[in-house]
Amino acid sequence: MIYFDEQTGIFHLQGRKTSYLIQKNQQNHLFHLFWGSRLAKRFPDYLLKEIKRASYLADTDHIKEYKLERLPQEYPAFGNSDLRKPAFQLSYKNGTNISDFRYDSHEILAGKPTLTGLPSLRDSKGCETLVIHLMDSVQKVKMRLFYTLYQEADVITRHTELENYGECDVEINQMNSACVELPTMDVELLHLSGRWAHEAGIQRTALSQLNYRIESLRGGSSHEHNPFIALVEKETNEQFGKAYSMNLVYSGNFEATVDVDQQEAVRMQIGINSTTFGWNLNPEATFVTPEAVLVFSDQGLQELSHKYHNIYQNHLLAPQFAQKERPIVVNSWEASYFDLKEENLLQLAQSSKDLGVEMFVLDDGWFGKRDDTSSSLGDWFVDQHKFPAGLSAFIEKIKKLGLAFGIWVEPEMISEDSELYRAHPDWCVEVPGRLKSYSRGQWVLDLANHEVQDYLIDTMSALFREYAIDYVKWDWNRSITEAGSNVLLAAQQKEFYHRYVLGLYRVVGTLTERFPAILFENCAGGGGRNDPGMLYYMPQSWASDDTDAIERLSIQEGTSLIYPPITMGCHVSQVPNHQIGRVTPLETRGIVAMQGNFGYEMDLSKLSPVERLKIKEQIAQYKKIRETVQLGKFYRLSTSEKSNAKAWQYSKDSQIVVSYVQVQARPNFASKRLRLVDLVSKGLYELPNGEKRYGDELMMFGLAIDPVKEDYFSQQWVLKKVED
Ligand code: GLA
């Protein structure tokens, strides 16, 4: 519930396990009072009065020396007595950039208003929204702070809107989606970072009096950093400790910052990256920031992940796919790359079907005259040399085998050697007269241009209509450089990056609405744009271009911190692995790929009899556990050898699935056990070998791990609860 107490001026957003408190004082400034474990319905107005920093007692209501800097701000402005990093900065016609927004009124609404043009968590029963209206008495600008409380899911979303009701333009230089302050720096910064083929590594850093910044300047949310930031108590592990986190529902340049001030208070913010952003807010126009999802946990990272998984699966993903089990795919990429031959592909499809695969995905190389990365992006018509009888005839053969059909596209890109470029050279992202860098031999289409958006919507619609397509892998394989648009006025060029993202959302929003039965997979050279913004439209994501099972352990672990397993694409690939040359056992590749949406990225028509048998069993095994993996609860398990082994568990109804992977064999090993979590203490569980164990024993003693002399060893147990 959301409460407001007139007397104290305190708003209390009270979730199932969380409370968030904001206070307005008599001067109508807004202060961030508290975010943490759930409090009773109370309004502690002494908190602000008792803030004593550097022997300064902030009598916020009466004194003249009104030092905002000493007090926790809810949405700090630029240009007042708080000289820390602001949440927003505006420039006015008179050349000044000082703002002073004060509380004017508020509303508490049932449900949730939509964010125009942007993805956001969906409205749901039991959510309520607080809108705080702020006014600047000097400038004719209104600000609205939105807080939606998802009561049961225990999650708060925030965004800000700015409305210009004056006669002059207002320039927005920066406008974050959320800002919170913690009173102590006794926390660590936790974030996900990496690089292409090595995404989502969990990083933890102790804080000192510094400004920390996690960002993307690449045009997409990037492989380097996920738009996610958390502050966690130092001892926080999977089950214990407090964690405060923000995830931005946005697929472009973002910044997530943490600033430790001179009194050791910590300000955490997230929003559009101000380095590459500017916006002219015309009279009568409103600007809407992306949405930030705020999740707090006082029971470690496991609860944090559960809250994200639950809210994303149930309130972010397209409802028709949220609870729908995903097909087991075979993807042509690592099997044949650009060397697509119909006969080989049909053989691959036939063998895959015999093994139990459910969908065939035709990856890059099927269109234009694309034999390598140097041509044809933009020419979305079938290559008649590769498919002489046409694509429909090929798809028909695939469907006759009993397989669904998926296809790869990269619509936001253009090759210099393409009919599209010859017809529309001005549709590229570019700054005339400047170098236009190639990357992977390609350029980016200007999605800030409405005509380009319409063209993509029409071309892709025609493709999806003409062919019997069940699944689309939507790729984005390069960053944006030399950013500029041929259709934007000089004054609007600074808006380019955000306009690109809005254009992208219009394109994918229209297409996913028009083709609700198609399952879209989001890909950007793997996880280069794996963010809640894309997940809103495309309910799954290819986690990484690195398909090596051991590399995938940390990539999938980091990804699982926020994103539910049902959204995570994981495939078994050939050995030696194409990215790093490592040879791992087929069993281990299978167990690691079973962590999410399962499939194969290898030539299943060229297997030895033993491999064929093993893969058949693997697929049958995944089908037995798929519902638990995709619709159950996921847990990362602690192992005694943190860096050398990873383990995880899923639970749904009476099925428990446990997987364990040990990276390197060690000599003279001690006997090892793996403790399970969150079982019914008195419940009786049957192990794969028929033995039975009680829940409390499995949680206290754990399962015995087989001692083996072998690198990259793995084990999986499927347990059945036979008595409650
Ligand atoms: C990207 C994807 C790959 C594959 C290639 C095709 O790198 O991540 O899975 O689709 O493009 O060019």
TrEMBL record:
The keyword Hydrolase appears for this protein: yes
SUPFAM superfamilies to which the protein is assigned, alphabetical: (Trans)glycosidases
Sorted UniProt keywords: Glycosidase, Hydrolase
Domain Glycosyl hydrolase family 36 N-terminal: 28-282
Catalytic activity line of the entry: Hydrolysis of terminal, non-reducing alpha-D-galactose residues in alpha-D-galactosides, including galactose oligosaccharides, galactomannans and galactolipids
Pfam families from the UniProt entry: Glyco_hydro_36C (PF16874), Glyco_hydro_36N (PF16875), Melibiase (PF02065)
InterPro entries the UniProt entry points to: Aldolase_TIM, Alpga-gal_N_sf, Alpha-glycosidase_related, GH, Glyco_hydro_27/36_CS, Glyco_hydro_36, Glyco_hydro_36_C, Glyco_hydro_36_N
Enzyme Commission number(s) from the entry: 3.2.1.22
Residue intervals of the Glycosyl hydrolase family 36 C-terminal domain: 647-719
Group of enzyme by EC: hydrolase
PROSITE patterns for the chain: ALPHA_GALACTOSIDASE (PS00512)
Family: Belongs to the glycosyl hydrolase 36 family.
Name recorded for this polypeptide: Alpha-galactosidase
Species, as recorded: Candidatus Enterococcus murrayae
